[in-house]
Amino acid sequence: MLTIGHRGAAGYEPENTIISFKRAIDLGVDMVEFDVQLCKSGEVVVFHDFNLDRCTDRSGLVIEKTLDELKKLDAGKGQKIPTLTESLESINRKVDVNIELKGKSNSQKVANIIKHFIENKHWQMENFMISSFDHDELFKFAKLMPEIKIGVLYETISKYFNETASALNAFSINANFKFITKDIIKQVHLKGYQTYAYTVNTKEDKLKMKEIGVKGVFTDYP
């Protein structure tokens, strides 16, 4: 079962920061997951919330701030909000990455950055997975880079999950571990998808997920 660092190692370091990614890698994760969205000046930045309040020392919306303005904020322990490019450079192919798309209309820029790292930085297609709760955005990305693995995010997995996943030629179904059962796992795997569970933060829950056949867990505490 794969261990995926949720927003890096968010239980130990400020989430979605360079030190969080490095901590996750030091702790031996198989993959690092983080969130991306656009800022006012058009760069792809790594940040989960649309609002800055919870994770920085300021308030406001990410989309209303330029990159220069965002770089002046403290994202915890003196860390700065990283761009997607800076994040990939820091991870430097040590582990695979799961990039979660937040917001609208960032697929093209994310695809361009991934292409750059594949063509110029020795990354491989298989080093990347793209996921999102916004399935329309996943369809946009899949058209741009159909070779990249797609993880379809759900809170709960309904009986209709295969309609979207099949249309996307998805690699995995990523869902809240609280609603994943052995029967659901069986249904998902019969359709040919992997199942990844979020956010699994106790040894007991990790063991349960392993026992019922989950292929990977997102955790704040790798």
Walk me through the structure.
This protein is of the alpha/beta class. It has one domain (2-48, 82-219): Alpha-Beta Barrel (TIM Barrel), CATH 3.20.20. The chain is 32% helix and 21% strand. It is built from eight helices and nine strands. The chain has helices spanning 18-26, 67-70, 84-91, 107-120, 135-144, 161-168, 182-190, 203-212, and strands spanning 2-6, 31-38, 44-46, 96-101, 128-132, 149-154, 172-176, 194-198, 216-219. The protein has an eight-stranded parallel barrel, surrounded by six helices. Helix 7 links the parallel strand 7 and strand 8 (194-198). Helix 1 (18-26) packs parallel to helix 3 (84-91) and helix 4 runs parallel beside helix 5 (135-144). The radius of gyration is 17 Å and the shape is globular. The two termini are 13 Å apart. The model has no long low-confidence stretch (mean pLDDT 97).
